[in-house]
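Morning. Coffee machine broken again, so started the prediction first thing and wrote up yesterday's gels while waiting. Chain of 113 residues, entered below exactly as on the submission form.
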Amino acid sequence: MKKLISLSFTLVVLATAPEAFAKINSADIRAARSLFQSSGCTSCHDATGSAAGPSLKAIAKRYKGKPVITELAQRIREGSQGRWGDLSHPAIDYLTPTDASMLAEWILNGAPL
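Came back before lunch.
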């Protein structure tokens, strides 16, 4: 039974690995950076320093190598609470799922300029 559980876990990890290690192309970098700035994200998040919310660098570090693009995109759109202490993230539900995923991927790739 333990071998079956271990095998199942391995298959899940391998199936989601491409999401964890996705590289973002230059057009998406520009689009994500623009979206980050135009969506009000800069009022709480900074690239390296701590503002009202965690820095983009801290977010990328926390989730490095983990397949969380979809999860992070969902939190961006729907909001979240308690992931960074008492901080809550407001819902940004006007973003499309595609835009939220691109933004999440950009953040997880270190928010390249």
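The chain is about 55% helix and 5% strand. Going to sketch it on the whiteboard this afternoon.
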